[in-house]
Amino acid sequence: MVETVHHLPWTMDDRSIGWKALASNISDLAAMGAEPRWALITLSVPPHWTTERLEQVYDGLYACAAQYGVSLIGGDTTSAPEHLVLSVTAIGEVEAGRALLRSGARAGDVVFITGPLGLSAAGLDLLLRQHEAGTAEVAIEAAMAESLVQAHRYPLPQVACGQAMSAVHGLVHALNDISDGLASEAWEIAEASHVRIQLHKTAIPITAGLAKFSATVGRESLDYILYGGEDYQLVGTVATERAEELLATLRRVGASPAIIGMVQDGPSGVEWISANGSVEAIQKRGYNHFAKS
Amino acid sequence: MVETVHHLPWTMDDRSIGWKALASNISDLAAMGAEPRWALITLSVPPHWTTERLEQVYDGLYACAAQYGVSLIGGDTTSAPEHLVLSVTAIGEVEAGRALLRSGARAGDVVFITGPLGLSAAGLDLLLRQHEAGTAEVAIEAAMAESLVQAHRYPLPQVACGQAMSAVHGLVHALNDISDGLASEAWEIAEASHVRIQLHKTAIPITAGLAKFSATVGRESLDYILYGGEDYQLVGTVATERAEELLATLRRVGASPAIIGMVQDGPSGVEWISANGSVEAIQKRGYNHFAKS
Question: N or C: which end of chain A has fewer CB within 10 A?
Fold first, then answer.
């Protein structure tokens, strides 16, 4: 987490910087079906960051560690010339042979997600619009706005989902966490598994909050879902005949999963299938730190 | 490793930034008697760093990893606004119950080091003087200068020493690596073990290169040794009656160890004992990132 790159004073409060840095690493473990166990924290601190602000960052780190049963066991603290840099290494455990990978998707699988997407990206967009134009410009209910902001600042990695899936040997063929948007993560599975992934446009769940926000600001909800990221839900594939078993497994741990597409043979790639059956390629892009935008 | 804090273009070449970042983490494992196994690399890259320069950094990382049998298994790459930040997490293994700690020093132990100190700090001082005043100002032999610079840029963590010591159960009572200078590291052992450490001024080995450099620039060799750091030698304590066995163990793995002091009862602290027997407190300082100098 690099100040100015991953967060600005008007998008993240200090506590959420700590929470999210650890949460995003725990999410990588969740995507392998692992149990998070330990984390190391490296913090580079510029002179203008006060002790009180750093305590907030640590408060967020400890809160996330406590929620997910992670022990903070080490790391390093150094000074920095200008910008706060927070780097987390998380370590977890999974039974030998049970780790879930991106590379096992097969033609005939269906594609699932563990919960709703696009909320974090909408929350970020809301925060940026409020900062630029003043709060009056974005006319959505306070409670709804707050839930989008919360999704951006305090995401919840899907550890229980990951572990429930790795516990049933062979149930899930491929799994990835959604840190950079659905398009980018589906592409990673498609390329690692050498398959073509077809997402059904009408099958993607859109929450009421996201729909309302998108309508208010005049953007497509699917843009936030495809290219926004940082929701830290999971996307994976499962054999069609075991899809119901998978959904039941995920619901048992409190998730709201959905089937959103299919896996086909063919060159690696990701496509949209519209309601009328038309096919459209989905670009391989998400949040890219080195893109010249 | 933070650009401007840990290195400047005239103190470290790009390849050495990678080497030293990994080496300093391997040194922490060496100080516990562990076998380094894996490392994760997190790199935040500002726009002005070219691919060619980054390849040099990775070249140094891979060279160090190969030399110490470490597998680079992951990490993260992000952009950065202005300064390169390189963070390494190293993971190693040690047999249960065999890890060496700072907390076991006992009154009656002698204090040892695994090799000569102060070379890295002298190399840094040389590089800074050359940058400020031009190379002609520091009149020491090129080969000697090169060896000091090499000590600063490509330090060698003492993994073989650490493992040889942890292999003999109970031989070493306390161990620490010297990353921030002998004073600071001896203080860490004294505080963790609740003992007083007495260092014998005349027992500290000073290499010919360091002596020559110190004389040329008009500084005390012991200043580099006490407060310089980054040599990544090890300092520890051993029962007096097993000191010879320890020295033989270290020499077998190619080290040039020395006995430099004693452990006494009393309030935690570190002292100098001069040739005439006078006692002088050694301040608890080393390289401190947050010191206002």
Answer: C
How many CB atoms are located within 10 Å of the residue A150 CB?
Answer: 15
Q: What angle, 0 to 180 degrees and rounded to 10, lies between the N-to-C axes of helices A119-133 and A142-153?
A: 110
Quote the pTM value.
0.85
Which of A83, A80, A77, A13 lies closest to A41 in space, CA to CA? Answer: A77
A83·B78 Cβ contact <8 A: no
> Would strands B172-177 and B196-200 be described as parallel, antiparallel, or unpaired?
unpaired
pLDDT bracket for residue A132 (50, 70, 90): confident
- CB-based contact, B290 to chain A, within 8 Å: yes
Q: CB distance A289–B77 less than 8 Å?
A: yes
A277: number of Cβ within 10 Å: 6
**Interface touch B76/A87, C-beta < 8 Å:** yes
Residues of B with Cβ-Cβ distance to A6 under 8 angstroms: 78
Q: Nearest CB to B79: which of A80, A81, A290?
A: A290
Structure confidence at residue A134 (pLDDT): 66
A276 touching chain B per CB within 8 A? no
The answer to whether A195 and A264 are in contact (CB under 8 A) is yes
**CB-CB neighbors (< 8 A) of A290 in chain B:** 79
Rounded mean pLDDT of B165-183? Answer: 96
> In the structure, what pLDDT confidence band is assigned to residue B134 with cuts at 50, 70 and 90?
low
Q: Does B5 touch chain A (CB under 8 A)?
A: yes
Assembly ipTM: 0.76
H or E stretch covering A80: none
The answer to whether the beta carbons of residues A91 and A41 sit under 8 Å apart is no
Separation in Å, CA of B289 to nearest CA in chain A: 6
